[in-house]
Amino acid sequence: MEYDLLVREAEVQDASVLIALLDQIGQESSFTSLDENGIAMTASEMQHFIDKQAQSDNQITLLAFLNDELAGVINITADQRPRVRHIGDVFLGIKKAYWGNGLGSILMEEAIEWAKSSGSIRRLQLTVQKRNLAAVHLYKKMGFIIEGLQERGACIEGGEFLDVYQMGRLIDK
Prior knowledge:
Layout: E1 5-9, H1 15-28, H2 43-54, E2 60-66, E3 69-77, E4 87-94, H3 103-118, E5 123-129, H4 133-141, E6 145-156, E7 160-170
Parallel strand pairs: 4-5
Antiparallel strand pairs: 1-2, 2-3, 3-4, 5-7, 6-7
């Protein structure tokens, strides 16, 4: 099946569909920090979050629509304190139905290009469960390196602890 792909920055009117996507990701996968409770934000809280990011030069949320359906998101958040505002924390989430089709690569490429052109982000970092081999492979392919291992960095249903990689990528102009 062919898809029409649109990747664009989130807008305040996307709040409800973004919440629904994050809630679905939390239910479909134990690979993220989201759980069955999802993002636990109201539409007005999400609107405020999106608006705040839009006002910032070091944060962004990009949405991927396939045939007008929101299928994935990549978010870069950053602190505003001068000593660390150059560091972007990355969150990538994709509906399970679209795993393995290259959408993660497309979103990562877009986020990296945005970071390069932002004028402020000089480092991207993320955490990923060690067992999430597909995501670890993607991040390595995108130039991220494993900088550390956080033992028991995540805990999933049933109380099982999981090790988490800390990964980073430097951004040059």
